[in-house]
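<backbone_tokenisation>
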Amino acid sequence: MAWTWQFEDAESRAVDGPNEAFSSQSDAESWLGQSWRELVAKGATTAILAEDERTEYKMSLLPAGG
């Protein structure tokens, strides 16, 4: 099983990001915690965590109220 992130902009269009694959959900979430600012700078507003082809969840990368 591989955990990966996909990224979208405010209009739900795909945003290119690193093609990292992680062996656990925890590792994927830790990586995002360190990388989200750079992703926002590239235009990403949403991150989607997937395990293989199944979407685990979708979350905003913008600060609350932002």
